[in-house]
Structure formats: structure tokens, C-alpha cells
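cron nightly-structures :: item 1 of 1
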Amino acid sequence: MPDRSPLRTLIDRARPYVEQRTLIVVLIVSACAWAFVELADEVMEGGSRAFDTAVLLALRDPTDPADPLGPAWVEELGRDVTALGGLGFLAGLTLTVAGFLWLDGKRRSMWLLLVAVAGGQLASTLLKLGFDRPRPDLVPHGTITYTSSFPSGHAMMAAVTYLTLAVMLARVQPSRAHKAYLLTAAVLVTVAVGVSRVYLGVHWPSDVLAGWAAGAAWALMCWVVARWLGRRGAIETTPADRPPPG
């Protein structure tokens, strides 16, 4: 019999205690956390400078770095998209979904949602304060900025908010098609917000990649917590929360 890999052995030992789907998500969270740490290490050592510079300048007119590629309406569209990751918009969206959960009688799920999004915002703020990376200085900024650069708050909070909202709403959807639609829409919006930050010149690409990694890890951890609480009756349960028979 061939030797089994350590990872496979770990999964087999944990399977009686944690279902396979949760194990996969935990592994993805670990991968996202590892990616964030590696990106942070590269940024602090200056190893990402060449990559960041090349991507940022590739999105600008070679004869005029102050001019993003494309007609004026594309730049305006970039500002519209980047607003989808702004604090005011995300707060309003979160409160809107929280109100829906309240009216739908899922009030403990509502509180979990609010704590998850607020906790993600706090984590983003603390990470920015800790790294305190300057904003890009190669090109003019296409929108006003107030905070430091790493990680991208818009990219991280878009991932935290949209993915958390998607997984919380997907929990109560009986159809796989509905679940897939919600999650796909959340991912697409998150990606668009991050790309817009680089296009407008307000973030280095590594800022956005780190924001996506941290935000995805946070949202997936919230999904694991929601399932764990659902199985224990601490929040409203769904069929997916119930342990398999036998």
C-alpha cells in the first residue's frame, strides 16, 4: 500500500468530528491566510515593487501616466464600481439585509451578520494601521483617499461584506442554483471593486490581492461559525446545518 500524505491522514482523522465540506472550507481559509502572510512579507521587504509598478503602469496611457486606459466613461464607471466597496454603501447594504432577516424572523442570524461585518471592518482598520503602507505615488489618484494602502480596505471589505451576505443568504436557500447565483454575484462584485482600485491608481495590486485574501478568509470563517452555531441551535437552522443521518 502506498504511503498516505500527511494532509490526507489529517483529513481522515478529523472526518468523524467535522464534515468534509467544513474541512475543505477550513483548508481554503488556511490557504487565504497563508497567501496574506506571504504578500505582507513581500510588501514589507519590497519584493512586490516591480510587480506592483508594472501592473499599475499597464493600466495607464504610456505617453501620459495621469490618464487611465480607455475613454472617459470607463474611468467614470471605475468610480461607480469602486463606490460599491465604500464604507457608506456597505453599511447601508448590510443594514438592509439585516432588516430583511429581522422581518423574516431570523434575528439571531441577523446579529451574527452584523457582528461578522463589523468585525471585518475592525480587522481591516487594524491591519491598515499596523502596516501603514503609503499609497501609490506613480500616478495621480482617481478618487479621494483617507487611509494607508495595505491591505486595500475596499477590496477586503467588499470580500467581507458581499461574501458574508452571500453565504448567510445562501444558507436559507433550498436550491443549489440560488446558492450558486448569490455566491457568484458576490465574487464578481468583489473582484470588480478590487480591480477598480488599481485602475484608479489608489492602490498597489498587492494591496488588493491581500485585501481579497484577508476578506475571503474572514467571510469563510463566518460561514464555518454559522454552520457550527446552526447545528447547536444557537441561530436559526437550515437543512444543511443538520448532521447527516447515522
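cron nightly-structures :: done
Residues 79-246 form one domain.
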